[in-house]
TrEMBL record:
Keyword annotations: Membrane, Transmembrane, Transmembrane helix
Entry keyword annotation includes ATP-binding: no
Pfam families: EamA
Protein name: EamA domain-containing protein
Organism: Candidatus Doudnabacteria bacterium RIFCSPHIGHO2_01_FULL_46_14
């Protein structure tokens, strides 16, 4: 149960980060620069936590292999996500992130030999369905609306690719953590992504440096919140099934929707609440599977 509770911490931090990101995009900060802030400005906090812990783990023989493999794939997933958001309407592409837990039902048994029991499986499926419903609104053309866009728009295909890659890297992350520690893995992964995204931003985004300097306080706040996501997610993954952690992390969508409605007055609130209730039922099933 401790892993489940810590996973909720990751969901809370992730939801807060998403709302802050939306606020940053509304301030006309480039999407890649906002993505960069997730990692570049998380690094100082993660390094501070590592220093305060006073513990440097002994690295396993395959640590660097899993580090570069996992975070290279995560970099591709991040680029695909940004391309998907750029290529299509946010409300049409984001629902496809809901399928990461569904993909994990295939990848987790193959990569690390994990598969949830019946109650946990029901919970994962409910969270997947609920997070999909939560992202729907009247403008989608029905429950199958987003799927129809796959045939005519490339944005959803990019985001579905992101979800598929994340279902692989989440499992590789568990192996990488076993080769080090949750905190050290977070520091190393954040550093890799920060360097790679900084190079991409400076090469492709006009006035990226000035955007960073003008918004450094705000981006530091995003980085701090994402450092909490890192710590909670990696710690939870080391304690329980990967698919449980990632499914519960999707509960961040509920938190983001509630905050989005309060702050940005988002529409389709009734549909989103229905999805939130389904997701909450899924979380209860997962919790019960841990006590059964």
């Amino acid at each position: 149960m401790l892993g489940i509770l810590i996973a909720f911490g990751a969901a809370l931090a992730e939801g807060t980060k998403n709302v802050l990101s939306k606020y940053g995009l509304n301030r006309r900060i480039d999407e890649l620069v906002v993505s960069l802030s997730f990692y570049l400005f998380a690094m100082p906090f993660l390094i501070l936590y590592l220093v305060l812990s006073g513990h440097l783990p002994e690295l396993g023989p395959d640590f660097w292999k899993y580090l570069f493999g996992t975070w290279s794939l995560n970099l591709i997933a991040t680029v695909l996500l940004v391309k998907g958001i750029n290529a299509g309407e946010l409300s049409k592409v984001i629902p496809f992130l809901a399928f990461t837990p569904a993909f994990l039902l295939i990848t987790s048994p193959l990569i690390i030999g994990e598969f949830p029991p019946a109650l946990g499986l029901a919970g994962v499926l409910l969270i997947t369905i609920g997070s999909y419903v939560l992202n729907l609104g009247g403008e989608h053309g029905g429950i199958l609306g987003p799927f129809k866009t796959i045939l005519r728009e490339k944005g959803p295909r990019f985001v579905l690719g992101t979800a598929a890659i994340w279902s692989i890297t989440s499992n590789l992350e568990k192996i990488g953590i076993s080769q080090s520690s949750p905190l050290f893995w977070s520091v190393a992964g954040s550093s890799f992504m920060a360097i790679a995204l900084l190079i991409i931003c400076l090469a492709t985004v006009k006035k990226a440096g000035s955007q960073i300097l003008q918004n450094i306080k705000f981006m530091s706040l995003i980085g701090f919140v994402n450092s909490l996501v890192f710590i909670c997610q990696t710690t939870a993954i080391s304690l329980t099934l990967v698919i449980y952690v990632i499914s519960i992390k999707r509960f961040s969508i509920v938190l983001a929707v509630l905050m989005g409605y309060a702050i940005f007055k988002d529409q389709s609130f009734r549909t989103r609440i229905a999805g939130a209730i389904i997701m909450f039922a899924g979380v209860l099933f997962i919790a019960l599977s841990q006590t059964a």
